[in-house]
Amino acid sequence: MKLGYGPAAAGLIAAALIAVAPVGALAESSGRNLALSCFSCHGPAGKSPDTIPGIAGKSKAFIVQEMIGFRDGKRKSTVMQRIGKGYSDAEIRALAGYIAGLK
Ligand code: HEC
User: 20 to 30 A from 74, CA-CA: which of 7, 20, 67, 103?
Assistant: First the structure.
């Protein structure tokens, strides 16, 4: 057998970890992962050095509202509509929660 039981065991361990992780902790870490792609434009940790508005420390409610507005075409944008379309409501709430916590 080529693969042995290593990957299967790793999968079981991962499943066990997911099963015991509190829901809040999961949302927090996936929020951070989702938000990482925002920083290429909005600056490191959301602090923009340029003309693109910074997003660090904006409230969660503001970020959720603007992201959904961009996505659904209610707020005009150059790029944010396309970007917004990549995220579900739940993902937007998770990443907004993370960004709002940045100083
Ligand atoms: C390709 C560059 C780019 C990426 C990646 C990007 N943005 Fe933006 N963002 C912009 C630009 C440019 C604007 C100004 C509106 C427009 O023209 O689209 C903006 C505007 C915003 C605003 C409104 C800010 C304000 O003060 O009104 C929010 C909130 C925002 N982006 C959140 C995000 C989040 C969250 C992500 C990651 C999921 C993200 N952006 C990824 C370029 C980007």
Answer: 103
Q: Name which CATH class applies to 24-100.
A: mainly alpha
For the record, the structure tokens of 23 come out as 């829901």
Count how many residues are written for the chain.
Answer: 103
Distance CA 97, CA 66 (A): 13
In angstroms, how far is CA 1 from the centroid of its own chain? 39
What SS3 class is residue 49? coil
Cα angle: 100, vertex 76, 38; to 5 degrees: 35
CB of residue 77 inside a 6 A radius of ligand 1: yes
The residue whose CA has the least distance to atom 39 of ligand 1 is 38
pLDDT tens, residue by residue, 19-76: 555 555 556 679 999 999 999 999 999 999 889 999 998 999 999 999 999 999 999 9
Cα 14 to ligand 1 centroid, rounded to whole Å: 34
pTM of the predicted structure, to 2 decimals: 0.81
